[in-house]
Design a protein that fits this description.
With 378 residues, the protein is an alpha/beta fold. It contains 16 helices and 10 strands. The strands form 3 sheets. Strands 1, 2, 3, 4, 5 and 6 form a 6-stranded mixed sheet that branches.
Length: 378
């Protein structure tokens, strides 16, 4: 690969993957060659597929960082091309069932501005649970807004939103507004804008700052109705289960997204680390922390995957077991040994953890653990 012989490199890496599918070097070589060929979309899919299948693999942090960098490069190129061909895209039909969530407009406490990205990311993740909807990545939307030099006030204009939707080839676009004060009432609202400029009456949720995470779920349920979708009970439960459970963790995560989009990987890693420490079940924070910690080493040693892997080994610790969660349906049965007496009762629990699928879409994997508590008599 380093010598530029990507045809041979991909053949060898593919053969290696069949022998050791959980070895990160395989997708790093294949994805790297796809990047050399300008196919950042394929590289992103290669990296994310591996990270989803082997979330605890050694060097998965490097793969996550490569995925983020490939997505950002692809998004920037696509945004430039879309603006250059805007007249052609305007006449093209949007991609069916595609939804883009703009950064939420924050009105109120300026210190809460990072929630603009955090709330949009959470809404995107929740709406991705809905059948037949395809959600665009936050990075894709942000790259286009940056190229258009659109600030918060520009994004609030429905006609501008419709233009953004056409450039993204999104069938519908969600505009959110959050009036937030930490010691007062909170009001969330969102409207759905179609490519032709038609605006549907929006969903709303009102409450207090402490209820912010619950209010976001209410807003998503209202948005589903505005999108013409009747949620199943299973979809409602998946939406309620996924995402952060701690408001402080969500605030730290939002700051991490803001730093990440600004290219400050050190600050991003610190914020994501604080988020996952505050809420160990918040898997997205733990995974973003890995990517942010590995990104500087990946960017500095572009093209030499072995050097990248070794550098990441030195700086990125593995995910904590509590943060990663149970990712496979498995039954753990601790058998009694001689001298042990098993208690009469077993404890059964069902845990669900969201994990991102290819192209950033999330799903929920059910995991059941049965723990038999054993007491050793004196």
């Amino acid at each position: 690969m380093v010598a530029g012989q990507c045809d041979s490199a991909v053949v060898v890496a593919s053969a290696g993957q069949r022998l050791e599918p959980s070895d990160a070097l395989g997708p790093m070589v294949i994805g790297g060659c796809q990047e050399k060929d300008g196919r950042y979309d394929l590289a992103f899919a290669t990296y994310t597929d591996f990270a989803n299948k082997y979330p605890r693999a050694r060097r998965v942090a490097a793969v996550r960082a490569l995925a983020q960098l490939a997505l950002r490069t692809q998004a920037t190129q696509t945004a430039k091309l879309a603006l250059a061909r805007e007249s052609t895209l305007t006449a093209s039909a949007p991609q069916p069932s595609t939804v883009a969530v703009l950064p939420v407009t924050i009105a109120g406490d300026s210190t809460l501005q990072p929630l603009s990205r955090g709330l949009a990311e959470l809404m995107t993740s929740d709406l991705a649970m809905v059948r037949n909807l395809r959600l665009l990545e936050r990075v894709q939307i942000g790259a286009l807004l940056d190229e258009m030099k659109l600030g918060q006030s520009g994004r609030a204009d429905p006609s501008t939103a419709a233009r953004v939707g056409r450039l993204l080839r999104a069938e519908r676009l969600v505009q959110g507004v959050a009036a937030i004060t930490q010691n007062g009432p909170v009001r969330l609202s969102a409207t759905v804008v179609r490519g032709d400029g038609n605006v549907r009456s929006g969903a709303q949720a009102n409450g207090t700052f402490k209820q912010l995470l619950d209010l976001e779920k209410q807003l998503v349920f209202g948005l589903a109705t505005e999108l013409g979708i009747q949620l199943t009970e299973a979809e409602r439960q998946r939406i309620l289960r996924q995402g952060p459970k701690n408001l402080a963790a969500f605030l730290a995560y939002s700051r991490g997204l803001e730093a990440l989009d600004g290219g400050d990987y050190r600050a991003a890693a610190g914020a994501f680390r604080a988020a996952s420490r505050t809420d160990p079940t918040f898997q997205a924070a733990a995974q973003q922390r890995q990517a942010a910690e590995a990104a500087p080493a990946v960017a500095a040693r572009s093209g030499d995957v072995v050097a990248v892997a070794r550098a990441v080994d030195q700086i990125v610790p593995p995910l904590e077991p509590a943060a990663e969660g149970a990712l496979k349906q498995v039954t753990v049965d601790v058998s009694a040994t001689v001298g042990d007496v098993a208690g009469p009762n077993s404890i059964g629990s069902t845990v669900s953890n969201p994990t991102p699928e290819s192209q950033g879409i999330w799903s929920v994997i059910q995991a059941t653990g049965i723990i038999r508590i054993i007491f050793r008599l004196p």
